[in-house]
Amino acid sequence: MTGTKYLRYLNPLALFDTKRTRDIFQINPTVVPERIEAAEVKVNVYDYSATELVETKLTEVDSCLAFRDSKNISWINVDGIRKADVEKLAQHFGIHALIVEDILSVAQRPKMDEIDNVLFCLLNMLYFNDRTGAVETEQISIVLGKDFVLSFQEDAGRDVFNYVRDKLRLSNSKLRISKADYLCYALIDMIVDHYFVVMEKLGERIELLEEKIIRSSNTRSLAEINRLRKELIVLRRNVGPVRDLINGFIRSENELLEERTTKYFKDIYDHILQAADLVENYRDMMMNLQDLYLSNVNLKTNEVMKVMAIVTCLLAPATVIGGIFGMNFDRIPYLHHHYGFFIAVGLMLIIPIWMLFVFRKRGWF
Description:
There is one protein chain. By secondary structure, the protein is α+β, with helices and mostly antiparallel strands. It has two domains: 3-296, 2-Layer Sandwich (Beta Polymerase, domain 2); 305-361, Up-down Bundle (Methane Monooxygenase Hydroxylase, Chain G, domain 1), CATH 1.20.58. The protein is 55% helix and 15% strand. It has ten helices and seven strands. The chain has a seven-stranded mixed sheet, sandwiched between helices. It starts with a helix and ends with a helix. The model is unreliable at 1-7 (pLDDT under 50).
């Protein structure tokens, strides 16, 4: 652990990470955020049919425009978003300006649109950062047209589509013998399935936190509860709307979607319902952990108060005896007795010992 990490523990308020709260809740739909242009763009093209596959890696979108007229099915995946590149692809593939605006948007809510015989969906890929314990999002836009699929990603360094790429390289795979709508299904299915990977890792953190709270509750435990609740907000915000997105594909009567492919979207719908239920279960667990933390804190407080009350009761006889024999009267019993002091001290010891025996017998401690 570096020195800067140690400094966090010197300030208890820093444990609650209010900056993360601002990052989660700073979305304002009335303000159009400015997207930072990607410094580098990578274009991967998979032009395939049942008998052949052409895999091409490009560094500019101009070189992939020719695949629009290909007789095969083309998947053009653009890593790194630039406004000029998106507009150029949109113009060449006949994509509406409203879809271009959504592709260039930032922190957009997952959605599905159908404009000019083109199906468009936007959702977030989720990743779990093991170092920071945060759920990270990456917006991806998928455009389904006749014999082509365009996908736009923000981060060129990671995605969840390796399984799809491996299936495309197999000549006898279902992807190779199906149309573009099945490829669109496969991409969305990989994104939704990866939600469970993220939730599994988050669930492990919740279980560890539960054990930690049971063993000992402190300010760091409360900070951890607060942090995990924020990550659950990120999950809930990104998982919930995908249900409506998939429902849009199921209800669509567009000719781009075959009836047999619609059945596969119903399978994704079942998965996203399970994911939404799991998020709610985790949310309930966090509420229970908060109640457990408060119960442990109250239990510790009660234990401290009980000890203090017992100590006060045990000292009460000595206080009373000392107060009586310390009064300024001329005649006090045993004032000049040879063993008066020892008798007083003995009473101060015998009475508390007898009180301890009574308290113990009644089960007070």
